[in-house]
Amino acid sequence: MGIVNPMDGLEGIYSALNEYRSILSKFNTDNYSRLLESASQALKAATVIDDIVGREMRIIDSFNNPIFTYPETFSALTKQWDAVAKLAQSIHTPEMEMLHKSLMANDYSGINAFVASLDSINIEAQNMAFLKTTKLFADTVATLPKGLSSAIKGLHVETATRLLKSDKLSFDIPSKMFYLEENPEEKASIPETNIICSSLNVLPDLDEIELITFLNHLSKFPNLALTHPVGQKIMEAVSNWSTLIDFDDEMYYHARIIPEGACPYTEAQLLKAPSGVTWHGRYNFVGESHYYFSDKPKGATYEVFKHSKNSKVQIAKLKPKRKIRMIDLSGENLSKNKFLEYCRFSPKPDDYSNIKREYLLPCFVANCCKYAKIDGIKYYGSKEYTNYVSWDDTYFDCVGFDFAERGA
Known about the structure:
2 domains, five-stranded mixed beta sheet, four-stranded antiparallel beta sheet
């Protein structure tokens, strides 16, 4: 791949990087401070950006090209900072090291060279993670090898940020699987890797390599989890979780979909977990069912509507009648934790007949909770409500019920 022409359709990003000397005269102190303030989010990169921008600020070029606007150039500089910041926080592959040296020297031909280096069926995980997390390649996605663009879209930013520092994984583009470089048979799909990396927020003493090997063990021997050292570590971690709480509100709410043409539920039915859950779900092994509730009626309603196409629900108003021991995982920093999502959501209707490998790890952790006599989980719903799940459905009296319709 040769040098990109400034007018080749990259919407000015590459050309702005090459030509930004011509517009630096339009930078004032406030603009420079804004750039450095954003760089403070990555302290390791702040001095690097100070050097790059400061050096170029001293070059006052009288050349004025109307094609390149100030906002476009400021955006390009920010993307350059963003790339250098991510590189400063990464374990470098040879390709990343080459790009780092290129950007430090203001030689932007390294952008094309980096993309060209990815023309392979296998790439190192750090390179893929770098493409996901940096803004520098936003307009060059079409030049990536076939299949890599869609794979990058499926990778969560949280996962990619962790993989920037993982130098033992590579990604096979045809199969869309990460694999251990020392043992390619140990592999995980993109959804599985997303869940594994999210689980590390809850299980911080483990790493993604350990959990990939454990997932493959669970897939082969689902009933022998505790024969694996990682399974033993997870059991120990769950048993030692100290943030245990009792009910923290006077009333709670449980919603149930009313099928079209069906009669409303009785109070006794609303106090029981739904029967007939015999498939392998994200949170349950065969035959297990759990009881979900919220501290607000809208929370119970919304969570049910997310997983059904039906338009009407019945909502039970619940009063606790005995104590419970729950893990409190409701902090907003865990609001988008994919591991917790898989712990708490029912499978989709078309998933009932299939065992999903990505269900295995959170399902095992939920069972560790039960074994450790932890009765449930309090977890983040939204800024307006909090959700809960218990393994038992005998904690409440029903003191009333109501109905709600989708969109009401």
